[in-house]
Structures are given as C-alpha cells and as structure tokens.
Amino acid sequence: MGRATSLQHLHDAQFYDAAFTRLLVGPRFTNVAAAVLRTPNVQLHHTKMFIKPPENGSPFPPHQDHPFFPHTHHRVAAAIFHVDDAPDAKGCVRIAPGSHLAGPREHDPEGSFHLPGFPVEELVPMEAEAGDDLGVPRRPARGRRGRRHGGGPPQLGLYTPAVWRNTPHTHSSHEVCLAYAGSGTFTVEGTAHPVAAGKLFVARPGEVHEIVSHPEAGLGIAFWGFALDTTALPEGPGWWDGLLRRERPLVSPRLGSLPAIVSALASEAAAPRSGVDAQVTALGSALVIETGRAFASPAELTVTVDPGARATSAVAAMRRCGQPPGAFRARGGTLHL
Ligand code: NI
What angle do CA 250, 253, 258 make, to 5 degrees? Predict the structure, then answer.
C-alpha cells in the first residue's frame, strides 16, 4: 500500500499563468466553442485544473454537471483540456453517449452529487492524448437553444421509441413534441395530459413540464424548440394565438403538414446540398407556422382570399387537371404559389 493520495485541484488556472489564458482565448478553442454553442458570444464561467495521482487513483462516480452548476437557459458547456495522455488504464473520462437526451437526472447529494445505480457498463472511455479537448454538454443538448422566429431555423431533435422519462424542467422558449410511436404522459404545471402517436403537444416558455413514456409502449417523438418574437408578429388574430394564450389546450391532433415538414428538414440535414441553409431556414419558418396552426382556433386561421391571387389561380389550375394541391408537395421546384 502506498501513501494515501487525493485529488488536487486549482481554480481559475488562467490567473496563475498566461499560458492558460492564451489557451482559453485563442481561436483554436473559441472557434470551436462558438460553433458548438451556436453563438459568437461565448463567456468564460470558470476553470479548474485537476491533477489525478497515479496508482491509488481518485475516481469520481458517474454524474451530470447540471446539479453542480444549475443554469436556467441550458446554454452552458464544459471543456476538458488534457495536459498529458489519458488512456483508459490511467483513468480517463468515461461518458454515457446520449444520456443527456432525457434531461437532468435525480442525483444523490451524499458526498458529492452522483448517480447511484447508474449502469457503469454503458460508459465509454474517452481516451485522449496531451492537447486533446473533450466537450461535454452541461445538460440537454436537446436543441433547446431557442431561436427567434425569423432569426434562424428552430432546433429539431428525435427520441426513438423507448421507455424513458425526463424530470420536471422549463425552457425560455416554446418546446413542441410530435409523438410518432407509443404513448405516455405529458405533465404541465402539475396537470397530466395523456399523449400518444399522432398527437402534438407544447410546453410554453416558463411552464414546468415532464414527459414520461408508458412502461409498455415506448414513446417516440420528434421535438423542436423556437422563440417567438412577439414584437414581429402582425396585429390581429393569427396562427400564433394558440401558442401565446395560456388557457388554450396543450395537446393537438391537428398535425397538418408537420410530418412532411419534419421529414423534409431531416432529409436536408441528412444529405446537405447547395442551398441547404436557405432550405432549412424556409422549412424552419414553415415548421413554426404549421405548429401554431395546430393550436389555433379555426376563427384565428381564417383569411380573406383575393379570388384573383396567384395562389388561388394556381390551385384552381391544379384542380382543373385533376391534381389535388397536396400532390405537388413532393415535386416542388417549379411551382410558385
Ligand atoms: Ni422540455
């Protein structure tokens, strides 16, 4: 038995040596941080340096960083710089890929926040060499950095059908889920709503919500988040009303074109081609509007159509040649409505 050892650490290493400051503010790191966080404005919160002793080791049990640094808007990430090689035998970091998708988990605060009974065999060693950087989301990457409508595409994600749950949480933007498999319960502000394949459900900004899959009918969802810039919306009733009024139903069966729009967005992302950015932006706007329509009342969606308008004549032309307007969706390209 050797001498007892312990984990040594030093806070805010950049205050002790300019080499650390240069590492933090250099473009090699800031460019990556800006890309990962999808913003040119990245702020340093803190740093610490760990020196793990050999032989005895000082393991730290599985945990998420969220309970250590709870953050309202979930725009925080951690980065690890390796100053020497960290092979598995030396006790490198291990991660559970995808474990962040279910949101923050209940931690045992005893000793230090950790996840008791977490399946360690699922952890994947992240071996590293000196100079490597490992980025870790503090909490759901789940696409929750809401963008302003019109300011960029919404964030889109997918949970494949499985038995899962997330814990009660809120967002500063709208979050919408489209269930495509299984069933479950969507609880918002303490009220439980049953959900199942074919249903759309929304959590409005600030509403505490939780999703729990049925134990025998794994819930599969596509989800997206966006922030509505209410100052940019026109006067009068419209597609946005159902998203803004708290008394309105949170679950809707009216999917409209949403499955097609989500599929089109997924196709663009899976095989990017020239024009992908414009396509994703346009489809993102369509996704937000079609989402609003699902929660709006028929009266709010009523518009007065000019019989001579180009869109009306194009649809009339399609009907004359026996084509329902929807049939043109898959062809795209030459039709300008
Ligand atoms: Ni959520």
Answer: 100
